[in-house]
Amino acid sequence: MPRIPAQAAVDDPALRAAYTACGRFAQAANPTEYALMQLMPAALRPACWALWTALSVPDNIIDSTDGTPAERIARMRAWVGRLEEDLDEGTSDDPYRRAIVDTVRRWHLAPRDLHISYAAIEADATGSRSATWADWSTRVQHSNVTWAAQCLTLLGRAGLYIPLRPQYQRDFARFLDGVYLTDTLVDLSADLDRGVLHLPNEVVEHHGVQASDLLERRWSQDVQALIAHLVARARRQVEAPRFVTSVHPGAVILLRAVSDLFRARLRAVERAGPRLLHAGPRLGPVTRARILAPARTKAAAAWTLTPVEVPVTPAPPPVRPTTVPPQPSARAVPRRGPLPHPTRVRPPVIDPERMPGHVAIIMDGNGRWATERGLPRHEGHRAGHTALRDVVHGALEIGLRHLTIYAFSSENWRRSPAEIAKLFEMLAQERCDFEADGVRLCWAGSPDGLPEDLVEGLQRTERETRGESDLVLTVCLNYGGRAELADAAAGIARAAVAGDLDPNRVSEHLLARYLPYPDMPDVDLLWRTGGERRTSNFLPWQATYAELHFTDGYWPDVDRRDLWQALLAFGRRERRYGTVPAAPRPPVLIGPAGGEE
Ligand code: IPE
Ligand code: IPE
Ligand code: MG
């Protein structure tokens, strides 16, 4: 029976009972995952149970065979709606939701993270299948990663911050893919019982297998080859991942245990043979104990190296007056639109065809701006941040979709330690809050050498704004373009050595997928302020075909009107991509006004 450790600081008996209920639920539904949660620091386990429950209850509703898909979706939405109301109230009558609400509030988690998973879980109701491995992977990331990300957040909030280096994020995603693929194989027969097949079409078809063969449990050599291929793929993905070497020893032990346990599950899948289509292979108690018992002892010892702090749950929000009926749709805090410019100037109308999709800015001239005013250089950086805020609001106003800014280059370490320290202090204080909704923040760069609070703030903002989509703002901080290309090359080399990639298939398209931020679109317009005409190791891959725009003013003097001017200037450029002009331009008539008539 799950026990709440004393360090978890849960004194209220009803709340303790609520957490215990979540622990019991997790243990009964998924003993393996429950056992792995027990490898987390003791004080954090109840929160892990609650978060697991927050995802498993809706998942169970969708996976049940009770009612039509539409009815199951309606039931899941009703449960999620009640959770939202409970989050507003600060508590719940339902034990599961009471523990979930306490976890979200105590650890300041973003409920939005849960919603990303809810959307992915809901999509499963229709039984729609992924076409390719890439689609499959996106689905895995959405339905599972929020849980993994929230556990990482818990560790960070408890003082056990675990930085995941960007160059290892791909490895981490691949590891989670392997975990999920193993689960899919173990649960294959249960899914087939429900008439669902979670494997991507491309791999099933490649082996000459029809979905109906599996749904009708027809074992053949092709099915055998398909399963063998999937087991081999999952095994490579869950092999002790490289990224575990750079994190807290407690996390290393936990991730190694995941790797050992999932490889044991894969051996069980292999041994099952044709029985796999009829029953999920289970791990024997001896195998589980052989892996988990030593991991438990080692993890407990490792986590004691760093004291864990459990925050107190904030007081519940004031109770709503009973005369006002609860309005689920009005529950959300009103969205904060872009703030207007002080002059109230409105953005120009730009033909959507002439609007760049992605603008990248080298915000240069902060130091000179400050020096000319007799101020220390860091005051220039502070003023530059104010300029950036205005430009972000202007980008939202005009409907720009991608804005990437250069905040600190890998070469900027050559500056004085005092300037660097002040710059980082300012960036950590600002916390990338642009006081407007709709901005999804992404960070491109390395955590090496950066202060922990800055890295933690950036990663937290990335997680918390993941659901926003009006403007993707990528902050290149401790970023180097060549380092990014070297990371891509290293990733490709690793994949080739692991047998996941045929070196003859390396193309421009494939290389782009191995960049640390593969979803960043090509830059259409690259703008540098401050008078210099160079790109200083900024986005060498993405900006090869960018239109360049240089302005002489210093960055702190810029505001949204300069961004709009840059967009208008872009609209006048002719982009040819190696072709010749489509048609000769009409001659430009120079003469008095009205001369064109
Ligand atoms: C750009 O402004 C901001 C950073 C590099 C952090 P600079 O600090 O380079 O300003 P100048 O070029 O010295 O004026
Ligand atoms: C580039 O500016 C980096 C940022 C704007 C953050 P620099 O001012 O450091 O560039 P160089 O060294 O003069 O080319
Ligand atoms: Mg400069």
Helices, strands, pairings?
Blueprint (H helix, E strand, L loop, with lengths): L12 H17 L1 H7 L7 H19 L5 H21 L5 H12 L4 H14 L8 H25 L8 H21 L1 H6 L7 H6 L4 H5 L5 H18 L10 H24 L12 H19 L54 E5 L3 H7 L4 H22 L3 E8 L7 H14 L8 E6 L7 H13 L6 E9 L1 H17 L10 H6 L11 E4 L18 E4 L9 H12 L26
Helix pairs in contact: 1-2, 1-3, 1-5, 3-4, 3-5, 3-6, 3-7, 6-7, 7-8, 8-12, 8-13, 12-13, 13-14, 15-16, 16-17, 16-21, 17-18
Bound molecules: 3-methylbut-3-enyl trihydrogen diphosphate (2 copies) and magnesium ion (MG).
One 3-methylbut-3-enyl trihydrogen diphosphate binds next to α15.
Could you walk me through the main structural features you see in this protein, from its secondary elements to its overall organization?
This protein is an alpha/beta fold and 597 residues long. The protein folds into three domains: 1-161, Farnesyl Diphosphate Synthase (Orthogonal Bundle), CATH 1.10.600; 164-307, Farnesyl Diphosphate Synthase, CATH 1.10.600.10; 336-571, Undecaprenyl pyrophosphate synthetase, CATH 3.40.1180.10. The protein is 51% helix and 6% strand. The protein is built from 21 helices and six strands. Helix 1 packs across helix 3 and helix 12 packs antiparallel against helix 13. The protein is globular, with a radius of gyration of 27 Å. One 3-methylbut-3-enyl trihydrogen diphosphate binds at residues 362-364, 406-409, 411-412, 532, 534, 536.
